[in-house]
């Protein structure tokens, strides 16, 4: 396994570990909803609705890694 692959693997595992810990932490803080009405979002999440959204965060990380890979292959590929 090359050093580049190992670095990407470690970074990916770190992101997955952080996401799992964040999800478990957020799930423990979530209070049970009574009735058919959803619970109110915390103020911190309402202020940063896009930054705190895990879907947008996943897309941003994916595109960031994709850009790094494209740049790496473009600079190292023998045309």
Condensed summary:
The chain crosses the membrane at residues 6-25, 56-75. This protein is mostly helical and 79 residues long.
What does the radius of gyration come to? 18 Å
Structural class: mainly alpha
Following the backbone from N to C, one meets helices and strands in this order, namely: HHH
Q: Rough shape? A: elongated
What fraction of the residues are assigned to beta strands by DSSP?
under 5%
Unreliable residue stretches: none
| Share in helix | 55-70%
End-to-end distance: 24 Å
Number of domains: 2
**Average pLDDT:** 77
Task: Supply the number of helical segments.
Answer: 3
Main sheet overview: none
Number of beta strands: 0
Transmembrane segments: 6-25, 56-75
Keywords: Membrane, Transmembrane, Transmembrane helix
Protein name: Short-chain dehydrogenase
Describe the overall structure.
The chain crosses the membrane at residues 6-25, 56-75. This is Short-chain dehydrogenase. This protein is mostly helical and 79 residues long. It contains 3 helices and no strands. The protein has helices at 3-29, 43-47, 54-76. The radius of gyration is 18 Å and the shape is elongated. The relative contact order is 0.07. The model has no long low-confidence stretch (mean pLDDT 77).
Topology (SSEs and partners):
Elements lengths: L2 H27 L13 H5 L6 H23 L3
Protein name: Short-chain dehydrogenase
Organism: Cytobacillus oceanisediminis
Keywords: Membrane, Transmembrane, Transmembrane helix
């Amino acid at each position: 396994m090359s050093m580049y692959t190992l670095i990407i693997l470690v970074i990916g595992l770190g992101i997955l570990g952080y996401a799992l810990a964040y999800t478990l932490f957020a799930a423990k803080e979530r209070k049970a909803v009574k009735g058919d009405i959803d619970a109110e979002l915390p103020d911190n999440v309402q202020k940063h609705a896009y930054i705190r959204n895990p879907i947008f965060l996943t897309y941003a990380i994916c595109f960031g890694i994709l850009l790094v890979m494209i740049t790496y292959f473009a600079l190292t590929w023998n045309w």
